[in-house]
Design goal:
Elements lengths: L1 H11 L7 H11 L7 E5 L17 E6 L12 E4 L12 E7 L8 H11 E12 L4 H8 L2 H10 L17 H11 L1 E9 L10 H14 L11 E8 L1
Parallel strand pairs: 1-2, 1-4, 2-3, 4-5
Antiparallel strand pairs: 5-7, 6-7
Helix pairs in contact: 3-6
């Protein structure tokens, strides 16, 4: 069974490394980052994703999170325990704000978008990666209790402490467009992506279903609204 999964990995997804979504987001951030820029990692967490280490790519990297483990995040020059809705920084502090798998947890996305715009310099960018609530993974997540999410992620090798409650209040193309424009951002790019079906790489049967789903969605642009991942590039006017 494991051999067949690896065979399908090679046959269908040879261009997809492990953590391909985070690799993709890192490339997006690097496209906008340079050694003279100051960035904020919004929802930086404990620093468990090497793809979110921009300490050698930026002039200064700050991070905020409600999780106190952010204070020991090795990728940050400065860390603060704070919410996205009330950022502890003056106006126009950053050239770039990166938000990786955080939107789905926000209780008040409108306030968070406005705060991000406030702390960005004129012309600064807000980069987002988040799951699409209309994909089968978030749909299933909304139908199951948080304790099941912890159990499932533990089976996949993820620490229970890194599994947080999800709300999905800004997790669609329409919602991102809405909150961005309400806050005063220009939406430069909003992309829907369906890649290797990570959550169904449990066994051959589930993986086969995931491959079929991915092939169908990537065959027709009309199905973009059901792809797993949303990435956005928003610019402050």
């Amino acid at each position: 069974m494991e051999k067949l999964i690896k065979y399908w990995d090679k046959k269908y997804y040879s261009a997809y490394p492990d953590n391909w979504d985070n690799v993709l987001f890192r490339k997006l951030v690097l496209n906008h980052l340079s050694a003279d820029k100051k960035m904020l990692d919004l929802g930086a967490g404990a620093g468990i994703l090497p793809q979110m280490d921009f300490s050698k790519e930026a002039k200064f990297v700050c991070g905020v999170d409600l999780d106190k483990r952010v204070l020991n995040n090795p990728f940050l020059n400065e860390a603060k325990v704070a919410s996205a809705e009330c950022l502890p920084y003056p106006d126009q502090s950053f050239d770039l704000v990166a938000c990786n798998n955080v939107l789905e947890h926000l209780p008040n996305p409108a306030a968070a978008f406005k705060e991000v715009r406030r702390v960005l310099k004129d012309g600064g960018v807000f980069l987002i990666k988040t799951p699409n609530k209309f994909h089968y993974v978030p749909i299933f997540a909304r139908l199951t209790p948080h304790r099941f999410h912890k159990f499932y992620n533990k089976m996949r090798g993820r620490d229970e402490a890194d599994t947080f409650p999800v709300l999905y209040r800004a997790n669609s193309r329409n919602k991102i467009n809405y909150y961005a424009k309400e806050a005063g951002f220009i939406v430069e790019r909003l992309e829907s992506i369906e890649g290797r079906p990570e959550y169904l790489r449990i066994n051959c049967f589930t993986y086969a279903l995931g491959i079929i789903y991915e092939r169908i969605l990537n065959s027709c642009n009309l199905l973009n609204g059901f792809k797993v991942l949303l990435t956005a590039t928003l610019r402050k006017k």
